Amino acid sequence: MDCASAIESFLAYLRDHNLPVTAQRQAIAEVVLCSDRHVSADDIERELWARGAAVGTATIYRTLDVMVRSGLVVERDFGEGFRRFEPARDEPNHEHVICTVCGRVVEFRDERLDRMTMLIAEQHDFVRSRHKLVIEGVCGVCRGTRNEERGSAI
Ligand SMILES: [Zn+2]
Ligand SMILES: [Zn+2]
């Protein structure tokens, strides 16, 4: 789903649930749904500020909760003390590597890992429904081994 139709779906969700469709909610939805990154509430606030729209933190959190409930946005907890959000995609489960210095998040998929988590669950007489994996480390940019611009925290 492209981000324009994701925004449309979110507005339809609001209307279907008799929730107010406000310009602020639409602006928040745009930032989250059109991002290919993992944004925090602070990132959203900064981004909206840069666009000339001041939206309060409470409104941002409330809107994020509604977006998660709508199934259009997935919430992530990388153990940083705050939550991050990314658009829900149709593709299968993916994992994350996060830089503990700059907060850069990279996604990956690995079929061996997928199979292994299933086998480990089986060994313990479980049927795996899902799993979460976050690898923490220091990225190449922060180690100075890569020249590209330092990754932003979103
Ligand atoms: Zn880094
Ligand atoms: Zn992700």
Describe this structure as you would to a colleague.
The protein has 6 helices and 6 strands. It has 154 residues and is an alpha+beta fold. The chain has a 3-stranded antiparallel beta sheet with strand order 1-3-2. The protein has a 3-stranded mixed beta sheet with strand order 5-4-6, with no helix packed on it. Strand 4 (95-99) and strand 5 form a beta hairpin. The longest helix is centred in the N-terminal third of the chain and has 14 residues, at 3-16. 19% of the residues are buried. It binds zinc ion (2 copies). One zinc ion (ZN) is lined by residues 38, 86, 94, 96, 107.
Explain briefly what this protein structure is.
The chain has 154 residues and is an alpha+beta fold. It has helices at residues 3-16, 23-33, 41-50, 57-70, 111-123, 140-143; strands spanning 39-40, 73-77, 83-87, 95-99, 105-108, 134-137. It folds into 2 domains: 3-87, Winged helix-like DNA-binding domain superfamily/Winged helix DNA-binding domain (Arc Repressor Mutant, subunit A, Orthogonal Bundle), CATH 1.10.10; 95-143, Dna Ligase, domain 1 (2-Layer Sandwich), CATH 3.30.1490.
CATH architecture of the largest domain: Orthogonal Bundle
Give the CATH topology of the largest domain: Arc Repressor Mutant, subunit A
The shape is globular
Give the terminus-to-terminus CA distance.
21 Å
Count the strands? 6
What percent of residues adopt helix (DSSP H or I)? Answer: 40-55%
* Overall pLDDT confidence: 89
Helical element count? Answer: 6
CATH class of the largest domain: Mainly Alpha
| Strand-pairing-aware structural class | alpha+beta
C-alpha Rg, in Å? 18 Å
Oligomer: single chain
Q: How are the strands of the biggest sheet laid out side by side?
A: 1-3-2
Estimate what percentage of residues fall within beta strands. Answer: 15-25%
Reading the helices and strands in chain order gives HHEHHEEEEHEH
Specify the CATH homologous superfamily of the largest domain: Winged helix-like DNA-binding domain superfamily/Winged helix DNA-binding domain
Low-confidence stretches: none
Number of domains: 2
Bound molecules: zinc ion
Biggest sheet statistics = 3 strands, antiparallel
